[in-house]
Design brief:
The chain is α+β, with helices and mostly antiparallel strands. The protein folds into 2 domains: 79 residues, Glutaredoxin, CATH 3.40.30.10; 105 residues, Glutathione S-transferase Yfyf (Class Pi), Chain A, domain 2 (Up-down Bundle). The chain is built from 8 helices and 4 strands. It has a 4-stranded mixed β-sheet with strand order 2-1-3-4, with helices on one face.
Length: 203
C-alpha cells in the first residue's frame, strides 16, 4: 500500500487513519505546492495534481473522505465506524462528511489568501472573512460535542477527517476561546499516538 503524501494537507487524514488501523504503508512524500505534483508523472497518478492518493494493489483512490470510507470498509473489521444498524451510524456519516461540506471551503480560502498567493495579490479582507465563516461553522461542532468525547460516540474515522479539519482550523488562527468543547476535543485528538506520528512527518 502506498500513500502519496504532503504535510499540512488532507493526506494527513489518510496517514492518521492508516496508523489507527495499524496498516503498513509506503510514503511517497511531497511538499505543499510542490512543483513535482504538476509533473506529467504525477498527473498520471492524479490528474488534479493533489494529494492524497492511495494505491492499494490494483485500487487507486484520490478523495480523502472516500479513502476513509474505503479503508474502514476494507480493513476496519468492525473498528472505527459504527454498525450500519446502530443509531450512531447516520451521525457518523454526517460528521465524516462535515469537513468537506462545511469546513474545508473557508479553510482553503484562508490558505489561498494568506499563504499561497503572492503578497501583492493577497486580500486581508477575504482572509478575515474566511476565518469568521470558519468560526461560525465550528460552532456546530462545539454544540455537538457538548455531551460526548468524539463525533460519533466512540472514536471513528469521522474524527480523522472532521477532527483533522478542526486541527487545521486551530493552526491557521481560528479563535477557539469560546468553543470550549472543540478545544477539549482537540486536546484528546492530539494525545492520540496515531496522530502524533503524523505530526512527526511535518519535520
Amino acid at each position: 500500500m502506498k500513500l502519496y503524501f504532503a504535510p499540512n494537507t488532507r493526506a494527513e487524514r489518510t496517514a492518521w487513519l492508516l496508523n489507527e488501523l495499524g496498516l503498513d504503508y509506503e510514503l511517497e512524500r511531497y511538499k505543499l505546492g510542490d512543483k513535482a505534483m504538476r509533473s506529467p508523472e504525477f498527473l498520471a497518478v492524479n490528474p488534479n495534481g493533489r494529494v492524497p492518493v492511495l494505491d492499494d494493489g490494483n485500487v487507486r483512490i484520490t478523495e480523502s473522505t472516500a479513502i476513509a470510507q474505503y479503508l474502514v470498509a476494507r480493513y476496519g473489521e468492525g473498528r472505527l465506524a459504527p454498525p450500519v444498524d446502530s443509531p450512531d451510524f447516520p451521525v457518523y456519516l454526517q460528521w465524516l462528511h462535515y469537513a468537506e461540506g462545511m469546513l474545508m471551503g473557508p479553510i482553503g480560502n484562508y490558505v489561498v489568501e494568506a499563504v499561497l498567493l503572492p503578497p501583492d495579490r493577497r486580500s486581508e479582507v477575504h482572509a478575515k472573512r474566511a476565518l469568521k465563516l470558519l468560526g461560525n461553522l465550528l460552532k456546530a461542532v462545539d454544540t455537538h460535542l457538548a455531551d460526548k468525547d468524539y463525533l460519533a460516540g466512540e472514536f471513528t474515522a469521522a474524527d480523522t477527517v472532521t477532527g483533522h479539519a478542526c486541527v487545521i482550523s486551530e493552526q491557521i488562527g481560528s479563535q477557539l476561546s469560546e468553543l470550549h468543547n472543540v478545544a477539549a476535543y482537540l486536546e484528546r485528538l492530539k494525545a492520540r499516538p496515531a496522530l502524533q506520528k503524523v505530526f512527526a512527518l511535518r519535520s
